[in-house]
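call fold(seq) -> tokens
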Amino acid sequence: MPKGEPTGAGSGDPQDANLDIQAKLIFDPKRDVSGESMQRMIRNAEHSGNRKPFFAYKMKIIDPTYEPKIEEDVQKSQIEKLEKNRREGNWQVFAYQAMIMKIIDPTYDLKLDEDAARGMSSTLESTRRGVPGEFIWGGGSNVKSPGARRESEKDHEKDAQENKWMHFVRMAANVKIANPQQELGVDQEARQGIKDRLEKLKKEYSSEFLRDAMAAKIVDSTLDLGLDQPTQAWIKNIFQELKSPYANIDTFTDTLMAMKILAAEKVEVTDKGLEIIMPEEK
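ret:
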């Protein structure tokens, strides 16, 4: 998603008084996204190879009638990744992959036994305390020295502490979609931590705001997301900029997905998957 840092009127500035923004974020892909833009997103999703599930779940959120065409070998690879992370106890990644599977196919049996529930619950608790998850060294042939690895581990630990509420709310949203019966531990401390992070992101005009606000609404629709009028103007302006045919289609898709959830009247996780109820047009 774009940073959207303001440089003046019409360029993402949340203080732009000329934008016609109501007190409530008004947005609906059916009305506000052209057929050409929808086709661009579908083509992008269907020509993404092994990453097709990654794009397919986003398209399902944007348009529930979308039926992804995922090849058997791609589906098999996705399941293998899910099971590998289950075996290795990498519950943060497991929850993310389980969320993707559940949105694409709500009938898919994730086999969430007590071990999985306990593992995800324990990892959620660790993220809110700022405890780093499993450190995955991605250096491969680029590993030049043990010192390089130590520096990356330090960065990993710093990220876990400084962005603990980001890690918590995003994982909590994934867990809720995968297993809506699971207790997430969203107490008053978590609510305040999430609220403070969203306020910080707004002040920085950060691209992470939409992503974290979307996760927060999935976790608990009563959370204060800070969607005041200037923030809505900023979001709408980002959307207008991304409507350009030259804008990055991945960023456009991510932004639409977040905007739809933030504009929803109600977001529920049921046996039909993630159900997003949009306000009725008046």
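The chain is about 55% helix and 5% strand.
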